[in-house]
Amino acid sequence: MSVEERLQDVRDKIVKAALEAGREPDSVSLVAVSKTFDAEHIRPTINAGQRVFGENRVQEAQGKWPSLKTEVPDIELHLIGPLQSNKAEDAVALFDVIETVDREKIARALAAEAKRQERLVRFYIQVNTGLEPQKAGIAPDDLGPFVALCRGELATQVEGLMCIPPVDENPGPHFALLAKLAEENGLPKLSMGMSGDFETAIGFGATSVRVGSAIFGVR
Ligand SMILES: *Cc1c(COP(=O)(O)O)cnc(C)c1O
């Protein structure tokens, strides 16, 4: 299958999963995860109408997206990988949505940069639903005060939550937990589900799914 065919296949599966969950198909947005692939590999999906893309490294994204964004101004770029505060300036300059805010230091750095650059960047908070020591994300128990800090003192536009469930576990309970936390905190957006489990995530209320290899092929 070509990249265009795989993209269409993923879109069809999203519609089907949404309908099966009793949801509007356009309540689920597809973030096409293009990490490791170059502009020429990405371009067919842009030509096929894809506009929302995810990258996990600031530096890699800087190498391919500024020119594509100039060509196609309505592209929306999401940062889905861990962020160091010394990269906050570059991240705010390039990304429209930063999904991996997970600690006070990075939240402060991003808030200061967004203000300085007068950029309307939207933020998601990454939650470590499996409490995995090696994984980024705030612990579920610490989320409430962190949301309050981001919304209050830092005045950032926090829209939702994001998670990456442990690879060796059934993702369903993690998706359910993220949905519950979003509800409790009044956050409307839920970024959850990847190539292997995006249909499951849609059943649990995902408003965006991050799909890479099912569209672009193996990395
Ligand atoms: C790479 C990546 C994805 C996409 O994974 P696939 O299994 O290729 O769909 C989704 N989310 C994050 C955070 C990633 O780093």
Helix and strand succession?
HEHEHEHEHEHEHEHEH
Q: What is Rg?
A: 17 Å
Unreliable residue runs: none
- Describe the biggest sheet? 8 strands, parallel
* Strand numbers in spatial order across the main sheet: 7-6-5-4-3-2-1-8
Head-to-tail CA distance between termini:
16 Å
DSSP strand content: 15-25%
Global mean pLDDT: 97
Percent helix range:
40-55%
Please, how many helices? 9
Number of beta strands? 8
Keywords: Pyridoxal phosphate
Modified residues (N6-(pyridoxal phosphate)lysine): 35
Protein name: Pyridoxal phosphate homeostasis protein
Organism: Rhizobium rhizophilum
Description:
The modification N6-(pyridoxal phosphate)lysine is found at residue 35. This protein is an alpha/beta fold. 43% of the residues lie in helices and 16% in strands. The chain has nine helices and eight strands. It has helices at residues 3-20, 39-47, 58-71, 88-94, 104-117, 143-151, 172-184, 198-203, 213-216, and strands at 29-33, 52-55, 76-79, 97-101, 122-126, 157-162, 189-191, 208-211. Strands 7-6-5-4-3-2-1-8 form an eight-stranded parallel β-sheet. Helix 4 (88-94) packs across helix 5. The protein is globular, with a radius of gyration of 17 Å. 40% of the residues are buried. The model has no long low-confidence stretch (mean pLDDT 97). Pyridoxal-5'-phosphate (PLP) binds at residues 33, 35, 56, 80-81, 164, 194-196, 210-214.
